[in-house]
Design brief:
CATH architecture of the largest domain: Orthogonal Bundle
Distance between the termini: 75 Å
CATH class of the largest domain: Mainly Alpha
Oligomer: single chain
CATH superfamily of the largest domain: Intergrase catalytic core
Strand content: under 5%
Mean pLDDT: 86
Helix content: 55-70%
Number of domains: 2
Structural class: mainly alpha
Strand order of the largest sheet: 1-2-3
Shape: elongated
Number of strands: 3
Order of helices and strands: HHHHHHHEEEHHHHHHH
Radius of gyration: 24 Å
Number of helices: 14
Length: 305
Amino acid sequence: MDSAGLLKGFKRYLALERSLSKNSVEAYVSDVKKLYQFLNQDESSSSILKLKLEDLRSFLIWLNEFNISNTTQARIVSGIKSFYNYLILEEVITTDPSELLETPKIGRKLPVTLSIDEIDKIESVIDLSKPEGARNKAIIETLYSCGLRVTELLELKLSNLFVDDGFVRVIGKGDKERLVPIGQSALKYISIYVQEVRVHIVIKPKNEDFVFLNKRGTKLSRIMIFNIVKDLVEKAGIGKVVSPHTFRHSFATHLVEGGADLRAVQEMLGHESITTTEIYTHLDRQYLRATITDFHPRQIQERNG
């Protein structure tokens, strides 16, 4: 099979079997094209189907010549590994040369999180006397209660609220569906917004099922959610850099700190890999230190003298 055929099949595999977004598919294909570019610089180079681990390491050295960051290199390695995994599945090759290929080390930046007191403070500055106040209260509660991404919040539909069961159906990345528990507080404020504010909005066609709407009767935009959060954070006097995604980080962090199973948190967040969720086990070092200080038998003995 020629390179065009391999790339076409890989693209189909990523879209249909991996359910990746269009942008992710294009990024992975672009990564493999870089490997082809590396091979094509020397006519005597091996076929992409006959490469060995040493060849792929040479490819990474070649990338370094272009001053490509470790983050970008790590993504490229991920794309190459996915490509060879596809070739194995299709039985085009029998051994994977990328299996032992190491990903460049990346200094992982821990996300900003909010304490429960800070979240309460942000909600306390919402003006509930205004129609948008009830909506904004429901938005903040839903972001924190369910750990939703901004797009997932915007796409949340009334028909996907299972109030009696305490769940919402969420459409995540790659159009993957998941069921996420929703707390009574979030349901309470959604109900207030829907029954007391939303009913008075003239809703535009095709927007009838979206939960959160603007005053013109259409679903909210991403920038509006960011502006709502930014305005509330400033009014609350919170000195942190806070975005809508911060409530998702806080949701996950508070669950892990409370002893929640990491696999359950992964499921609720819609992470494809557990390694993405594991970042929340490294967040609050002071919390972990305080836990040892408060509960370890030796510490208790020392305090009691």
